[in-house]
Amino acid sequence: MKHIRVLWISLIVLILDQITKWIVKTNMDLYESIRVWGSFFKLTYIENPGMAFGIRFGDNMFFTLFAIIASIAILIYMFKMKGEHPIARTAMALIFGGAVGNLADRVTRGSVVDFLDVEFFDVNIPAFKLLFIEFPGYYMDRWPVFNVADMGVTIGMVILLVFVLFEKEEQPTDEPQSDLVH
Questions:
Q1: Mean pLDDT of 17-29
Q2: What range defines the domain where residue 102 resides?
Q3: Is residue 135 part of a domain?
C-alpha cells in the first residue's frame, strides 16, 4: 500500500492544474493577457492544440492517443518501481499528474489551456549545416505559454534527470559482508 501513496502527488498536480485552468477559462477571454509582474510574468489565456511549445504534427486524435498511451505507460512503470528510491517515484508521480492534466484537456476540450507567460531568456540557434542536412535555425524571444501540468512534467523530468545522473550505485564487493568488527 505504501507504493500507492506517491499517487497523491499526481492527484495534487492534477487538481491544481484543473482548478487553475478553470479559473482562467471562466475569468479571461481567449488571448487576453494580464500583467502580474511587468512584462516578465503575465497571465495569458491561450488554447494549444499541439504538443509542448505549440509543436504540431498530425491531428488532435494523434496527440490524444499518444497522451493516453504515455500516461498508461507511466502508471505501469510507477507500479513496477514500487521498491525504488522515493525521489525517482516522486518524479514519476509529478510527470504522471501533469500528463493526465493535459490529457483531460485534450479529451474534454480538444486542446490544452495554457496561461503562465514568462519572459525567461531569448533563444537564438543560428541556421547550420551538419553533413548533408541543413537546419533552419530557431529564435524565441519569449518562453512559450504553459500551465501547472507542464510544470509537473518539467519538474518531474528535471528531478529524474538529476537523480539518474547523480545516483550512486552500490558497488558489489568480492569480500563477504560481516557484522563482526575485527
A1: 98
A2: 2-119+145-165
A3: no
Global confidence as pTM:
0.80
Catalytic residue positions, numbered: 114, 150
Give 10's pLDDT tier (boundaries 50, 70, 90). Answer: very high
Q: Say if strands 123-125 and 138-140 run parallel, antiparallel, or are unpaired.
A: antiparallel
**Residue-wise pLDDT tens digits, 44-98:** 999 998 766 555 555 667 778 888 898 999 888 888 887 788 899 999 999 999 9
C-beta of residue 82 within 8 angstroms of C-beta of residue 93: no
SS3 assignment for the chain = CHHHCCHHHHHHHHHHHHHHHHHHHHHCCCCCEEEEECECEEEEEEEECCCHHHCCCCCHHHHHHHHHHHHHHHHHHHHHCCCCCHHHHHHHHHHHHHHHHHHHHHHHHCCEEEEEEECCCCEEECCEEECCEEECCEEECCCCCECHHHHHHHHHHHHHHHHHHHCCCCCCCCCCCCCCCC
Q: Check whether 131 has a pLDDT greater than 80.
A: yes
* 48: nearest Cα among 26, 21, 69, 73: 21
Note whether residue 82 is domain-resident.
yes
Q: How many domains does the chain have?
A: 1
In a domain, 129, yes or no: no
